[in-house]
Write a structure and sequence with these properties.
- The protein is an alpha/beta fold.
- The protein has three domains: 113 residues; 145 residues, no CATH class; 227 residues, Rossmann fold, CATH 3.40.50.
- Helix content is 55%, strand content 10%.
- The chain contains 22 helices and twelve strands.
- The strands form three sheets. Strands 6-7-8-4-9-12 form a six-stranded mixed β-sheet, sandwiched between helices. It has a four-stranded mixed β-sheet with strand order 1-5-2-3, with helices on one face. It has a two-stranded antiparallel sheet with strand order 10-11.
- Helix 19 links the parallel strand 6 and strand 7.
- The longest helix is centred in the first third of the chain and has 49 residues.
- The chain is elongated and about 110 Å long.
Length: 626
């Protein structure tokens, strides 16, 4: 464990690269062996055919029969071994692909990280601002789930905060338990991908298995159809053997009438087509987790315990449902479907079986899918932790309720952004104590103010989700997160940029008025940037003063250096800044947070460097090289 904690991203990358190279060698050997066996199968078939035909030509029929049996047995033994080898080769290729994706996650090679559709709820207080969902987001980076409910559970941990402390503790325990079990985590995804690439759509599955099929008196009608089918087959054979005339028509006629009367048509087909593959995958994944949840006194066993009820076998029931729906899906092939149902009551039989399975799983399926989603989501966080062993496991501090919930703490050291490559990442320290504390951050354009807000917010989401954070030290009390960083106007709602910003800030301020819940950590970028200087200053002073009096604490960034004198009137407001230097006629940024107001600005310098007109002497006066 200590070795893992000191492992750097570079050594982790080298370890994964070495494992991929080893898998390549194994795949190459298995591919060569498969090609050799393919040639031997062909040789065996040709030699067997020649020897058998030669023996028959020579009139040695018994010897020929013996040779034929021997060659067929040997051929099927070789074929069986070849199939097992091909299956192993397929698993190796999938495992290699999983490791390559892990390597891409570590290197932030977004093109090679599978992207699944995800979107933030409308009006969410921080999801879009912090790049938590969507392409090139935190969810895109850490999502290794195999079901839609697993992805939804992982997303909810990032978007629904803070969690209940007991839930967070159990989740954190399971994440840490699964972190060293890389084979379990990889095989959790591998077991599903062996069946197909399509994800397990939990909601669709629930809709299918919990929607009752059939009709009244199904069992009675099925029994009648079985008797009529048996009579038709018996009478038909008698007719073929010239034992009886065409009496089979008298049993087949009512059989056909009952079939068309009871045919459920498209409704039954909608249940079957495509769902059986998802159910096969679900059965494989449930069976895999069940086999590894046997050891007692583990977090995984405790989570999986409701699925181990006596007399209920989730993997077996799910596989039965998959086979039943697969049989029903023959309705998608009309000619084959009619031919089979002409011989026996195929649809009625499997509809009856499906209804029995539905009765067995109706009360259990939501629990099965819920626990699987929990395992998938914690496995995703464990994979993230395993890929970044140098990240810190934070623990929340107990809030001091003796002061009416006003105590709030956030203290971090060497805090970096997990979505920025390690080679470009800049870390900073920060300490906020007591509700009402505000850090007013000033700085030039492109100096790193917005990125720092996102860095703090995304790491807080990771901490409150139960994952490690990109920091060397991280302590905090439970908080509600609210941001105003990336505000868009809305043509549909008829909102201008400024009005959309005002509504977002009003919602944030209202949240700080609630003292019955944990304090709000607010992250506000370029406050009131959608209006003129005079009104922005007046509004910003009033808003920041009101924020300092509520149940919250956080950071506000601004270009308005005039606001830095608020530290004289707002007791717990501090100033900090990012700045730039000028070297060889170019702006350079170190993205380091420093105390105090910003001594530099760079807007005119940027305008001048890009060839826009500025008043002579103004640009050089606006940049101070400390």
């Amino acid at each position: 464990m200590l070795h893992n904690q000191t492992m750097t991203p570079m050594t982790k990358s080298l370890a994964l690269t070495s494992l991929v190279a080893r898998l390549d060698r194994m795949i190459a050997l298995a591919t060569a062996a498969s090609s050799t066996i393919t040639r031997w199968r062909l040789i065996l078939f040709i030699v067997g055919a020649i020897c058998t035909v030669a023996l028959y030509k020579m009139g040695w029929y018994q010897t020929g029969n013996g040779a034929l049996i021997a060659f067929l047995a040997l051929f099927f033994i070789v074929a069986s071994y070849h199939n097992r080898l091909e299956s192993r080769l397929h698993r190796l290729r999938l495992w290699k692909q999983i490791k390559l994706v892990h390597l891409a996650r570590l290197r932030l090679d977004w093109h090679d990280i599978p992207a699944r559709q995800s979107s933030a709820p409308e009006l969410h207080p921080y999801a879009k601002d912090l790049d938590l969902v969507g392409p090139h987001s935190l969810l895109h980076l850490i999502d290794t789930t195999v079901s839609s409910l697993g992805q939804a559970r992982l997303q909810s941990w990032l978007l629904e905060q803070p969690p209940k402390h007991d839930q967070w503790t159990l989740r954190r325990r399971l994440v840490q338990e699964l972190m060293p079990r890389s084979l379990f985590r990889d095989r959790l995804g591998l077991e599903g991908r062996l069946i197909g690439e399509q994800e397990i759509n939990g909601r669709r599955m629930e809709a299918v298995l919990l929607h009752t099929v059939g009709f009244p008196h199904l069992t009675t009608i099925l029994a009648i159809q079985i008797l009529l089918a048996a009579a038709t087959i018996g009478l038909g054979l008698s007719t073929l053997l010239n034992w009886l005339p065409n009496y089979w028509i008298w049993s087949f006629a009512p059989y056909a009438l009952l079939y068309f009367w009871t045919d459920q048509g498209e409704e039954l087909l909608e249940h079957a087509v495509g769902v059986h593959l998802e159910l096969e995958k679900l059965g494989a994944v449930l069976g895999f987790v069940e086999r590894h949840a046997k050891p007692r006194h583990t977090a995984l066993a405790a989570l999986w315990e409701p699925l181990l009820a006596p007399g209920v076998n989730p993997p077996r029931l799910v596989r039965q449902a998959a086979r039943t729906l697969h049989a029903i899906s023959v309705k998608a092939h009309p000619l084959i479907h009619l031919a089979i149902n002409a011989l026996c009551p195929w649809d009625l039989w499997f509809t009856h079986r499906l209804r029995r399975i539905q009765a067995q799983v109706a009360t259990h399926l939501p629990t099965w899918l819920d626990r699987l989603a929990e395992v998938e989501a914690t496995s995703a966080l464990a994979t993230f932790a395993a890929l970044h062993p140098s990240y810190r496991w934070p623990d929340p501090l107990a809030a001091d309720t003796s002061r009416n919930g006003t105590h709030a703490t956030l203290s971090v050291k060497e805090l970096g952004h997990p979505l920025i490559p390690d080679t470009h990442r800049i870390s900073n320290d920060l300490s906020l104590e007591t509700a009402g504390t505000i850090l007013l951050v000033t700085g030039s354009n492109m100096s790193g103010k917005s990125t720092f807000l996102r860095t703090l917010g995304i790491n807080l989401c990771l901490a409150q989700a139960g994952a490690p954070v990109c920091a060397s030290f991280f302590e905090w009390t439970w908080v509600r997160l609210a941001t105003c960083i990336r505000v868009d106007d809305s043509l549909e709602a008829g909102l201008s940029f400024f009005y959309a910003e005002v509504k977002r800030l009003k919602s944030l301020l209202d949240a700080t008025a609630d003292r019955s819940n944990p304090p709000v950590l607010f992250l506000i970028d370029e406050i009131f940037k959608g209006t003129n200087n005079r009104e922005r200053l007046i509004g910003s002073r009033a808003f920041i003063t009101a924020l300092s009096q509520g149940n919250g604490f956080g950071l506000v960034t601004t270009h308005d250096l005039e606001l830095t004198d608020l530290d004289k009137t707002v007791p717990r407001l501090r100033n900090a800044h990012f700045q730039e230097t000028v070297a060889s006629g170019a702006l350079q940024f170190d993205y380091t947070l420093r105390p105090g107001p910003c001594p530099t600005t760079n807007a005119l310098r940027i305008m001048e460097m890009e060839g826009l007109p500025v008043f002579e002497g103004e640009a050089s006066n606006k940049v101070i090289d400390p």
